[in-house]
Amino acid sequence: MNEAPQWVMFRxxxxxxxxxxxxxxxxxLSILAFFMIIASLFPLGLKTESRLLQTIAPGVVxxxxxxxxxxxAGRLFAGDHMDGTLEQMLITxxxxxxxxxxxxxxxxLVMGIPLVVISALVAVQYDLPLEETRTLVAxxxxxxxxxxxxxxxxxxxxxxxxxxxxxxxxxVLPLCIPVLVFGAGGNVSLxxxxxxxxLVFAPWAAASALRVSVx
Length: 215
What we know:
mainly alpha
């Protein structure tokens, strides 16, 4: 039985994005290194009291993840826009939503999951108990897709704009405050609710923003 063209297109886009990320390992590694540096600097700049570090750990890790996602969002469509691939994708008969969904999922696989894994290692630096570490990892696992989805909207709106990275941050940061508050507070269920809401509107909003910006 033949597969639906949309599914074939989506799988090709996802595979393409993963391969491109593998070829540009330095970009991915620099983003993950940025996260580690931010999250690791706080214990060095504060008194090494175990309870203090445990208290601030979730907030520090979540803010670091948010800033890292902003850095990654600015590059989401930039490469395809510069080499003309994005314009070619726009004129294909397949929905632009597939392009956006493929890129978002690829960024989650390439950047989101490794960041969550690294956060567990960062928690050790803060002497975070095992149960709190599990909660932190669970909140990030649920919340990172939200940051990537919202970042895609900002990236679509600012494609081709000089200094777009700063504009993305100005657009996206206010929208990320709820998931930041819930995630840093360990409210995984509320983060999941935000994710469900974001999944409904963010891909369509990003695709519409991208089409308007390019055309």
